[in-house]
């Protein structure tokens, strides 16, 4: 099995067809029945190129006489793979990185490109210094863009919005696999019991201090095969997402609305806070996602979730007045770039249209909040236009809603009002934004 060829196919599908890295990678591993070693190498190649694409292209430009824009896609990706192995993967011998890249070109009938690829890669191997970064004093944004392989407009946004220390923290957490977090299903077990059960299956599980009933998992392998997973004793959910539900604070016998609920993690956590008593209305625009929510709810032993297709922006149907309304809106995803590294290269990532969509969803959903009830607005992005700007606009234009203190016991690295929290990716949570409101009678 040629692992490098599989990596090439996946990367071409991501760049030319818009495939999702996680799905494409998992499908390739399953279809080709790869063992653990081959799966790890394939993942390292695919994620390595995606996480370092700007840096790799910067290096290519230093060694290639052909402008980057004129290099054919497969040839360019083979060069990226080769340079990744030469510069950033110590365990791959230089000779293997060069020779296998040339073979890969020939295998894909790129005969004319094979000599060009060989020349560029051999030039890299002969260089005393493989590459040098831009001068930080001359152009700080460009320096960070190349060093951390992040588009310049994102670096510029974060520097102006959050300052240099926070920005460097974000950039340093763009690469590497984030930790795997789980939510203990308190309807079926406890933290202590689940930790012991997982340990008996060789899985290391540790409590997170950030949120009760949150676990950090290591050495899981495929979680689907674990008995505790099959029996619904836990499900995978990032701790930032769990904190969002903690902020909402659902209680037994509440009526709750989750307007953009898929894949359902926040509805499931809410049901546990509610002790499976009350009613949760979980909506999404895709039927297959609602089917997934229903099947997971069944596995978890939750029967208070009612799913239905609904467009949170445009649907004018009346809904029950709810004690708790959760508005986790579609966003640019800048807080989860370590999980989905290809997102950073999307065009129009910082879109005013997206901000307007989010605001319309918030407006359309807020009206179902009961007087005295709680409304939470959240995103998994790091963009003030999608976050605090929408919050400030909402408060200005809706006098019956007031800021409501979060009381999560966590402080952001930036100064914020006490009804909002920006979580920066730090290896413990994804990047995330939470805002809490209370509806008052005028």
Name a few traits of the molecule.
8-stranded mixed beta sheet; alpha/beta; 12 strands; 15% strand; single chain; 17 helices; Rossmann fold; N-utilizing Substance Protein B Homolog, Chain A; 4-stranded antiparallel beta sheet; 3 domains; 442 residues
Can you describe what's shown?
By secondary structure, the protein is an alpha/beta fold. It has 17 helices and twelve strands. It has helices at 3-17, 21-31, 36-51, 53-63, 73-88, 94-107, 111-126, 140-148, 152-162, 164-172, 191-200, 227-230, 239-248, 265-273, 287-300, 352-366, 388-397; strands spanning 180-184, 204-207, 214-218, 234-236, 254-258, 278-284, 305-309, 322-328, 369-379, 401-403, 420-423, 432-439. Strands 5, 6, 7, 8, 9, 10, 11 and 12 form an eight-stranded mixed beta sheet that branches. The chain has a four-stranded antiparallel beta sheet with strand order 2-3-1-4, covered by helices on one side. Strand 6, helix 15 (287-300) and strand 7 form a beta-alpha-beta unit. Helix 1 runs parallel beside helix 3.
Please provide a brief summary of the model.
With 442 residues, this protein is α/β, with parallel strands linked by helices. It has 3 domains: 3-126, NusB-like (N-utilizing Substance Protein B Homolog, Chain A), CATH 1.10.940.10; 140-172, no CATH class; 239-439, 3-Layer(aba) Sandwich (Rossmann fold), CATH 3.40.50. The chain has helices spanning 3-17, 21-31, 36-51, 53-63, 73-88, 94-107, 111-126, 140-148, 152-162, 164-172, 191-200, 227-230, 239-248, 265-273, 287-300, 352-366, 388-397; strands spanning 180-184, 204-207, 214-218, 234-236, 254-258, 278-284, 305-309, 322-328, 369-379, 401-403, 420-423, 432-439.
């Amino acid at each position: 099995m040629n692992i490098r060829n599989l990596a090439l196919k996946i990367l071409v599908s991501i760049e030319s067809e818009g495939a999702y890295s996680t799905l494409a990678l998992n499908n390739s591993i399953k279809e080709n029945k790869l063992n653990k070693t081959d799966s790890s190498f394939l993942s390292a190649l695919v994620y390595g190129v995606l996480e370092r694409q700007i840096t790799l292209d910067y290096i290519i430009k230093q060694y290639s006489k052909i402008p980057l824009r004129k290099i054919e896609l497969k040839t360019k990706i083979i060069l990226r793979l080769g340079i990744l192995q030469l510069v950033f993967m110590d365990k791959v011998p230089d000779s293997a990185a060069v020779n296998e890249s040339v073979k890969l070109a020939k295998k894909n009938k790129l005969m004319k490109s094979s000599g060009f690829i060989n020349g560029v890669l051999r030039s890299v191997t002969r260089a005393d210094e493989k590459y040098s970064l831009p001068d930080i004093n001359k152009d700080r944004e460009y320096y960070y863009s190349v060093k951390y392989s992040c588009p310049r407009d994102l670096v510029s946004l974060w520097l102006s919005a959050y300052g240099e220390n926070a920005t460097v923290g974000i950039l340093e957490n763009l690469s590497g696999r984030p930790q795997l977090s789980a939510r203990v299903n308190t309807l079926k077990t406890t933290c202590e019991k689940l930790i012991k059960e997982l340990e008996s299956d060789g899985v290391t599980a540790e409590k997170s201090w950030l949120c009760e009933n949150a676990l950090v998992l290591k050495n899981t392998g495929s979680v689907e095969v674990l008995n505790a997973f099959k029996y619904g004793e836990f499900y995978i959910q990032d701790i930032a997402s769990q904190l969002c539900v903690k902020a909402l604070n659902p209680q037994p016998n509440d009526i709750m609305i989750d307007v953009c609920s898929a894949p359902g993690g926040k509805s499931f956590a809410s049901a546990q806070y509610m002790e499976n008593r009350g009613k949760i209305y979980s909506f999404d625009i895709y039927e297959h996602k609602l089917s997934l929510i229903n099947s997971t709810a069944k596995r978890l032993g939750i029967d208070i979730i009612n799913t239905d297709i609904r467009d949170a922006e445009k649907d004018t149907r009346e809904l029950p007045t709810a004690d708790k309304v959760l508005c986790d809106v579609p966003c640019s995803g800048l807080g989860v770039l370590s999980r989905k590294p290809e997102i950073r290269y999307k065009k129009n990532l910082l879109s005013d249209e997206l901000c307007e969509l989010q605001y319309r969803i918030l407006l359309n959903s807020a009206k179902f909040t009961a007087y005295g009830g709680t409304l939470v607005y959240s995103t998994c992005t790091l963009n003030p236009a999608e976050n605090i700007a929408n919050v400030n606009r909402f408060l200005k234009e809706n006098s019956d809603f007031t800021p409501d203190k979060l009381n999560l016991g966590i402080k952001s690295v930036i100064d914020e009002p006490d009804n909002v929290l920006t979580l920066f990716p730090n290896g413990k949570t994804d990047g995330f934004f939470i805002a809490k409101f209370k509806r008052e009678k005028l």
